[in-house]
Amino acid sequence: MTVSPALMKRIRQDVKSMQAYAIQDSAGMVKLDAMENPHRLPADLQKALGERLGALALNRYPGDRINTLRSRLADYAGMPQGYDIMLGNGSDELISLLALACDVPGASILAPLPGFVMYAMSAQLQGLAFHGVPLTADFELDEAAMLAAVTEHKPAIVYLAYPNNPTGNLWNAQAIENIVLAQGAQGGLVVMDEAYQPFASQTYMDHITRHSHVLLMRTLSKFGLAGVRLGYMIGPTALIAEIDKVRPPYNISVLNAECALFALEHTEVFAAQAQDLREQRERLLKALAALPGVRPFPSEANMILARVPDAAKAFDGLKAHRVLIKNVSKMHPLLNNCLRLTVGTAQENDQMLAALKESL
What we know:
Helix content: 40-55%
CATH architecture of the largest domain: 3-Layer(aba) Sandwich
Radius of gyration: 21 Å
Shape: globular
Order of helices and strands: HHEHHEHEHEHEHEEHEHHHEEHEEEH
Structural class: alpha/beta
Distance between the termini: 44 Å
Number of strands: 13
């Protein structure tokens, strides 16, 4: 059906010029493109969860069970006293709500690049300026450039992903601290995005009480519930209370909430899965480094960034072998000829390595 030009004029011009978030077709593929936990729940837990979800009152809006989830997540994360927790439909919604809440005249958002695309997209959709600061050639923070950008732009929000996506690394702790201090001195927020915390050796939660302008954001997607779409953000109670005012009512469904509560009752299962993925990550790093022309970069996430001689050729070759990964080589000049490989099961990793070896 043809849509009239007059109607299309009602759509913002900048939106029409954007590209929608692309999701690759993964049917029949070994899916190693989206940093998902490849392990499903054991059969007995799947059965128990199904029975529990089947008993929910789907005819009612979410009620106090959401507050139960907030409390359980706060305990699980080790939230300190004087802090509160806010839930989002994935971290993506929290990022969008932060842009909405901080949309004052002249506000902007700042983040290192390459980084998570939603930081820039949320700014654009809210009409805020976005300032990207390139990382160094080895994907470390360019501390001097970050500090200069904070001084020049005085951003409302600085995002620091810990570990970073798509590079997978943790940044220098002192550089982070200096950026946090500079952002606080000019009256802005810092959001530490710990989406990959289950696979990292460090967390900023150990330092969060030192700064009243720092928010810590996590998701259950990498924990093992990507299909549930549940993110959470922790910060000083007064600050969370203001941001929570722009949250849509009932943004977390009863199904999502109950799945998350069920998972928190079985954290040992997900902890074992995370341990397996950390071990597989180390095996993959060694195997990739042994391939001719391949340079894997250190990772503290459930993904590995690797530079290959020809990223397009390798991506197409892997896809021909029914292995789907992410070609990030066009995302930023620093990612030239880079592929992002999700850490899968032992069998999936073996398939990926064999296919990559043939595709180089």
